Structure prediction request, 685 residues.
Amino acid sequence: MVFPRAKLLQQKREAAAALIDARALPEGGAWITAARMEARDRIAALGLPTKRDEYWKFTDPGSLTAAEAAPAPVFEIGDESAVFDGIDRVRLVFVDGVFDADASDAPELAGVEISLLEDAAGVDLHWARDLYGALEAEGQHPVARPLAAVNTAYATQGLLIRATGKAQKPVSLIYRRSAEDADVMLHHVIRVDSGAELTVLENGPAAARLNQVMEVDVADGGTLHHVRAQGRDHERRAAAHLFARLGAESVFKTFTLTANGAMVRNDCVVWLNGKGGVAHIAGVTVGEGAFHHDDTVFITHAAPGCESRQVFKKVLREGAVGVFQGKILVRQPAQLTDGYQISQALLMDEQAQFLAKPELEIYADDVKCSHGSTSGEIDPTSLFYLRSRGVPEDEAKMLLVLAFLAEALEEIEDPALAEDLRSRIEGWLKRHQR
Amino acid sequence: MLEIKNLHAELEEDSDVKILRGVDLKVGAGEVHAIMGPNGSGKSTLSYVLSGRDGYEVTEGSATLEGHDLLDMEPEERAAAGLFLAFQYPVEIPGVGNMTFMRTALNAQRKARGQEELSAGDFLKIVRAKAKDLQIDADMLKRPVNTGFSGGEKKRNEILQMALLEPKMCVLDETDSGLDVDAMKLVSDGVNALRDAGRGFLVITHYQRLLNHIKPDVVHIMSEGRIIRTGGPELALEVEEQGYGHILEAV
Ligand SMILES: Nc1ncnc2c1ncn2[C@@H]1O[C@H](COP(=O)(O)OP(=O)(O)O)[C@@H](O)[C@H]1O
Ligand SMILES: [Mg+2]
Prediction:
């Protein structure tokens, strides 16, 4: 059926109007109120996403836009240790989306300023005012991301982190759940000053339904490493947007591990705005059954001599669905761009599904861009080779699955963090083996 | 050691393709047997059926190792029982380190036999010593399994695994293919070093030249899925001089 665009937009706007009518903008100081009002205008103009949108053609946003969040049982990890447990870091804990000072370390780290969004929102001036909602607004073109605008307008919780020097340990955001029906929005802003270095970790499912935005601004020569593990709750839903603007000679590397979850959409929007910037976006997804995971990436090369890498690997079984939409846009000034994109799925049975849409749009003439996407089963010849040496079938499969994932895990620069996540994945694979 | 009786096998997906049509073969402990035969006669298939590769259906006959029914076991159980196949085409496995692979394999076999697993340190000592004899350097041990290895490196890596796993019955499929003279010598020396009163060898080869280095006790000629002639080392020379045509005609 052909659906008239005008009618679709009208319906999307009606849904947005209903959302706006039902919610009051949070209280706050002048700067944040202005940002929230602008975001609200964006929502009204863009409308809410529907599965008829081109950008949502593989993933139905219905459960993310519904007025009520579906409850999701809280996953108990039992006697396993939590992700990143062995890593020395500044731990900042949110419970059902609300910062819990008692459960957290003091938010103090040399070379880093950390404040709560709720505190900063009450003051007249804050460094984050130039960023809050600004990168999200920028990220609405050329593709609309209304859920991120909803977040900018209504989120009251989050952290504003500014690295002014070289941080000696990671800042670790920990999301815990206690309520089955928590419907949470978090909005973080991270600014890395020129020459500063920071690692930000995130782990935990946060909520039955999470709408998260992280706005990242890395100044010239700054470095930000971001590693997150999105929790194992089976029925949770999440839409996370990461907007990153990179200056000259800066480095931004982000890695996401997703295990389980009924619906996860991770959008990552990156602008390489200065000469010689580096952006690596990677992820590993493992899921089975009623699992739907969508990685959507949009990288804009706007300056010459930048490098971007996208490495996404998914292990899917028993009807799990994996989606990858990845775009590299190379603008005319971005000569000598080095762009690489790979998305691969290992389908453990015939029910699992992988849907991929890699895109290149190039306006510069001297660029090196490559992309590839594959899906397939475990290679039977490799499996036989290992077994013929005495490696039992389960163990042989494990080796091959981990080998498949290796390229993505190698994107995590810190070996301790990489090993932590690798061992989590191995644990997941063992528990889900049959 | 290895006893094959009237073995028939066809392709699983196409039962019209009958590959093994009644193979009879007996390799005693301490013996080296060679199987020669034209391309397509079923030599590799025999090695795969013995080691348990998917895709073949055994319709008749038996194969036992020291009296244990091989055909009833999973590939890894056959390995633990002492069977080893050096592949004609060793498989490249990117992402799995050669060392990790070999340690996992050795420890899995030890575990299956009720022996204690080797620590990383002990394993390293053993593998280094054996690698040295085969002129396998540290780099080859570190790289992913067979990935980017030259033909000769792959074959040497197969022999290294064989030396490490110390199987009772070694099946070598075209181990000489793709080897230059020097590599052939290295590989043969590696194999000869493993010759032992308790170990059997089945050396599959199309050409006679490997048998100058690895001297067989018995030579079999395979054609169209059957052993059509059996003799001593002189049979290999006959093939070398007169080709297969002459022998096939004589049957
Ligand atoms: N998987 C397979 N699919 C189709 N044909 C096969 C397969 N495996 C073996 N064959 C056929 O069986 C015969 C024997 O092959 P093979 O065992 O490789 O012979 P050899 O090793 O003696 O050259 C050949 O005709 C080959 O084409
Ligand atoms: Mg062959």
